[in-house]
# Entry
Amino acid sequence: MKWTAKQRILLFLIPRLAAFLIRLLGCTLRFEEICAAGVIPGDRMPAPSVFAFWHRSLLMAAYRFRNLRIAILISQSFDGELIARTVERLGFKAIRGSSSRGGAVGLLAMETAYRDGHICAFTADGPRGPNMIAKPGVTALANRVGANVGAFHLQPQRAWVLRSWDRFLIPKPFSRVAVTWPPHTSAAPTPEATQATLDEAVRMAKPHTGDI
# Structure
């Protein structure tokens, strides 16, 4: 994709700065793992696997799961390019595509990443919402590879909430962050089952952090 001169400058500067700031903020946070009975954090499970989370938690997830080469599906837009270059600096594998642009190509690339042994993670309501309504991509991948869908949610005790479509969360320094892991869907999941496990991840966090 061709970018303007201004965009190329921004693509050079912003991912470097953003990755630095994420590391700086992240090292002040205290992560608390909260698991449903019989569930272990997804990064401790044998790969490959398929997980979903909400777009508003992306910043905290970028730090919590850094350097694990997790494959994450990211929009082909300019904003998506900024995010992709940032998370690659944090040790993720950026897969380009979305449910709105490049969906089939992105899904095929995620399937390849899964079969190569990666954890595959989707911002289930990305790239532009509606907020906390799961799109079909994560369910489609799980059915293609014969996997179930795991979900997680990261919710800080104290945060700035942006007035964006996703109500994006920026945790305040030195906050405690609940990382919740609900039961996975069964194999061959439905969209309704994926939505339900994502909703359960949010519900599990509320007793520990309140409703943000």
